[in-house]
Predict the structure of DUF5694 domain-containing protein.
Amino acid sequence: MNKVIFFIAFLVISNVKAQQNIFKDKFDDAIPVLNFGTFHMGFTSDANSVDFDENDKKNQKEVHKIAKMIAEFKPTIIIVETTPDFNETLQKEYAEYLKNPKIKFKNPSEIELLAYEVGRLSSATRIYGIDHHMGYNYNIPNYIPNKVNDQTYERYFQLINEEEKKLNYDNLSLLEKLKIDNNPQYLDFLININADILTHVSTKDKFEGADEAAKFYHRNIRMYSNLNQIDFKPGDRVFILMGATHTAYFNNFMKRSPKYQLVDPFLYLK
């Protein structure tokens, strides 16, 4: 009996060791990054949107409660989903908010509602946009005649539609919504529905779905390149706020990067 227990213990220990890092892959001064996903709180051109009144005082109060939680991370730099050519205007608007947090925005988004407030509470003075616009068609399966299809695409969306009903996302509180948006399984799901599932749709000897999915990967890797062009200083701590699909890609990029050290958002979403 003791031999059996010892053997099981040996297998468990061996398995744990097999999963440990085999070499150092992060710089000693790797930059802490809180990479945070959200739905778009204002107008969005995205195909899917969440019903959220950005001008409602109660909603704004709830957003600021979340901002107070996140501010415990103490970021020194804020990153948002706008293009770099807007950075000068963005920095100016943010500076005005720091002087007067009661400033009224006509159509505030998660940037004005959440990112600015996190930055204010953290005394962060620098803010940058890293978005990069590229067109792609994730509805391409509807436009491919005579496609070779193993039904994975159709079956997957049938499964997801059933599960989304159980999730009842629209009726959750803001905090509960953001916990879902940053759940690792949900982030993987976002990459799948926006790109990977398209690899199951093509015509013989062609790659229509895969090529379209690659465009979305292309956009996100360019956004990541925009991030890498920012001049970070020793001691900087970075808060990134973007639509959760971009968050999902950035988690993958930064997990492998020697430069960044991801911080678990659930340390602050309590």
Remarks:
- Residues 140-212 form one domain.
- The chain has a mean pLDDT of 91.
- The chain is about 45% helix and 10% strand.
